Amino acid sequence: MVEFGQADLTSCDKEPIHIPGSIQPHGCLLACEGDTFRVRRVSANAATMLEMDGLAPGVLLSDYLSADMLHALRNALAHSLSLGRPAYMFGVHLAGATAFDLSIHVSGDDIVIECEPEGAPEDNSQSVANLRMMLDRLRDISDMETLFRAVVRLMRGMMHYDRVMIYRFDPDWSGKIVAETRSSVLESFLGQHFPSADIPVQARDLYRRALIRMIGDVSYTPVPVQQLPGLSALDMSLSQLRSVSPIHCEYLTNMGVGASMSISLIVDGKLWGMIACHNYSPKILTLGERTIVKIFGEFVALRIVVLLRTSRLQVTQQTHTLIENFLREAVPMSDMPSYLRQHIADLAPPHPQRRDRVMDQRAMDNAWHSPLRA
């Protein structure tokens, strides 16, 4: 079990969650020097999982891997650097007979290599086919509410989580569940609001940088990352296997959740919300499956951008029309409140959540007849 006894639930906004010093146990981690591939850090389970006896901080990875494999790792590293995000390798045989899926990125002075058991190729092929179908179903949706309903249904249909939700942030970073699909035995969270403290600032920063986060089993035992003496803690912000805050694991446990996954929705460069998935027993998706989910999340975010901009354009066009009609009709100043009351509905945004921004009649009258103040 993750140790929760020392967790201070009142100070989670100060928790250094990007440097946990441990990983989740469904994979292993190596961190090497870029030029020599000398191992600087290694998770305690790596030697056994990778079938590399004696693998420890200070050894050369070239003592375990072929020249061709090292060349492939360098190519993947170059790809990661050019993209500014982790690069993936699938079905890789490192040293033993077991094949692994790899995620590679740079963190500070370290090349970080994360290894997970290979996903079944036929499962990955099916996931790609499912992704094509899902994107086609979203492409022509023209309003947010319909989009959100479709997203949660499609995500649950593909990945089979017990509950899938869309969580939208408000300007003060509190949040609301705006769409949900769930197992029939579960209570609904739809419409519920959550305070900003539920997802503190450093967690939101990680969600913005790393677009997908999976916890395969909230009751897991963290695997420590061993490192050479004198090194500072490894920044694991982009790590697939990064160990999770014990505070968050306790939060999920209190909700009865056994596994979770979240996909960030980045709109105009900002964290707009998340697709949040809960399972009530342990559930691990392969790296290939998570890659498909990540692509789906990025497409959903793009659709949100398109719909928001379409809405803004419609309001702008309606405003121009109102102004043109006003000028053409030459409405007397004394009739202005009456004219605006008759036509203000033309400016109402098409989305229900924005209607509260339109003036009501009393507020408009007060504003029109109030004296100007310098």
From TrEMBL:
Enzyme Commission number(s) from the entry: 2.7.3.-
MF terms (GO), sorted A to Z: kinase activity
Taxonomic superkingdom: Bacteria
Gene3D superfamilies for the chain: 3.30.450.40, PAS domain (3.30.450.20)
UniProt domain Phytochrome chromophore attachment site: residue ranges: 143-302
GO BP term, pick one: regulation of DNA-templated transcription
Record keywords: Kinase, Transferase
InterPro entries: GAF (IPR003018), GAF-like_dom_sf (IPR029016), PAS-like_dom_sf (IPR035965), PAS_2 (IPR013654), Phyto_chromo_attachment (IPR016132)
Protein's UniProt keywords contain ATP-binding: no
Protein known as: Phytochrome, two-component sensor histidine kinase
